[in-house]
Amino acid sequence: MTVFKTFLKILNKNKFIIILYTLFLIFFGGFNMQTSESNINFVASKPDIMIVNYDEEKGITKDLIKYIEENSNVVDLKNNEDAINDALFYRDVNYVVYIPKNYNKDFMDGKNPEIEIKSTGDYQSSFAEMLLSRYIKVANIYQKSINSEEELINKINETLSKKSEVKITSKLDTNILSKATFYYNFANYSIMACLIYVVCLILASFKDIKIQKRTIISSTNYKTLNRKILLSNSLFSIILWMIYVVLSFILVGDIMFSIHGIFYLINSFVFTICATTIALFIGNIVSNKNAISGIVNVISLGSSFLCGAFVPMEWLPDGVIKIAHILPSYYYISNNEVLKTLELINLNTIKPILLNIIIVLSFSIMFIILTNIVSKRKQKIG
Fold first, then answer.
1. 203 and which of 66, 92, 283, 331 could share a cystine (Cβ 3.0–4.6 Å)?
2. Which string of b and e fits 311-326 if b means at least 16 CB within 10 Å?
3. Measured distance CA(255)–CA(175) in Å, rounded
4. Is the Cβ–Cβ distance between 379 and 226 less than 8 Å?
């Protein structure tokens, strides 16, 4: 009980730092969630196409021009190469189609006349090229078996009029899940920084020479003391985790009540346990209170940058990702990223998540063992 009372007294003196890192999470996590909002509605856009026709506007030539007009924005420019080149350069037009002289007659004769083009090379011009290629390919197929131009045009239009029906079968709200992932990814920094800072300060206070001497001559051995300190810190960690969970329900919304939300909570809770053991280990190594701030920046900021808490994992170089594998934050953040795209949750789909959780727990056990080893060696006071 004495250990716990002392813990609370020291914790109360450092409550400002807890509030500070919580505000960091609210501000930066909330900002990331706002920037992650995107419009998921699809709006079809038409490329700007200029048609330069050197043929008579009849038959297959007329039908090709009609098809282009129906599926694009036809731009009317002077038939001057300088003007056309300027329009392409300034993106006033994306694609220029040159229909050669006698195109209609040559096509019906099976000569496969070539249509020259100019383009800007952007995605709009690619779409325009797709439209033109689609018409020509369909026309060439029917031309081999149909001699009547009128029948040929009817068949072409009948084929091109068929549209594919697109149905969205996924009910996964990736936008909301992205918000949750942004929040809990950033929580990697806040949880680790807050725990390391506070726990190290508390342990540094327990390392006072007078307290250490009293502990040595008392009936409490180092394992019992470590266990009591671990339990006290664990209680603080759970309370801190619960605060961040409540904030996630406020900031993220209803998705936290779903099965996805439950896994976000489990994942963050396991990571909080691991971060607590890391803080205990560092606290047993570091005695200088002035060095704690530097250690917090190196470990919490470093792991957050390397593992994708601030910058999405897919943007990080492969070399950085390989290095990140040695850090527990990598497995915690990887789980958040998996949850963001996981539509169906069952035993098979959550295997990678469970594996990462086991790895994080393994890190926790390792740091507890290391803490006991370091603490035992420091029992002798020179």
1. 283
2. eebeebeeeebeebee
3. 11
4. no
Q: Is residue 188 a contact partner of residue 308, using CB atoms and an 8 Å limit?
A: no
Strand partners for 74: 49
Pairing state of beta strands 95-99 and 48-53?
A: parallel
Answer for the pair 46, 20: CB distance below 8 angstroms, yes or no. Answer: no
pLDDT digits (tens, 9 = 90+) for 78-130: 888 888 998 898 888 999 999 999 999 999 988 889 999 999 888 888 889 99
Give the angle subtended at the CA of 41 by the CAs of 35 and 42, to the nearest 5°: 120
- Asked whether 332 and 188 are in contact (CB, 8 A), the reply is yes
Amino acid present at 116: E
Closest by CA to 48, choosing from 97, 86, 81, 114, is 97
Nearest CA to 213 out of 372, 380, 10, 371 is that of 380
Q: Please say whether the beta carbons of 214 and 297 come within 8 A.
A: no
- Using CA atoms in the order 36, 39, 44, 47, what is the torsion angle rounded to 10 degrees? -40
What is the C-alpha radius of gyration for the chain, rounded to an integer number of angstroms? 33
Q: Residue by residue, what is the 3-state secondary structure of the chain?
A: CHHHHHHHHHHHHCHHHHHHHHHHHHHHHHHHHHHCCCCCCCCCCCCEEEEEECCCCCHHHHHHHHHHHHHCEECCCCCCHHHHHHHHHCCCCCEEEEECCCHHHHHHCCCCCCCEEEECCCHHHHHHHHHHHHHHHHHHHHHCCCCCHHHHHHHHHHHHCCCCCCCCCCCCCHHHHHHHHHHHHHHHHHHHHHHHHHHHHHHHHHCCHHHHHHHHHCCCCHHHHHHHHHHHHHHHHHHHHHHHHHHHHHHCCHHHHCHHHHHHHHHHHHHHHHHHHHHHHHHHHCCCHHHHHHHHHHHHHHHHHHHCCCCCHHHCCHHHHHHHCCCHHHHHHHHHHHHHHCCCCCCCCCHHHHHHHHHHHHHHHHHHHHHHHHHHHCCCCC
pTM of the model: 0.64
Q: Which of 360, 341, 359, 357 is nearest to 349 (CA)?
A: 341
Instruction: Output the six-digit token pair for 372.
Output: 């006991």
Burial of 92-108, coded b for 16+ CB within 10 Å and e otherwise, reads ebbbbbbbeeebbebbb
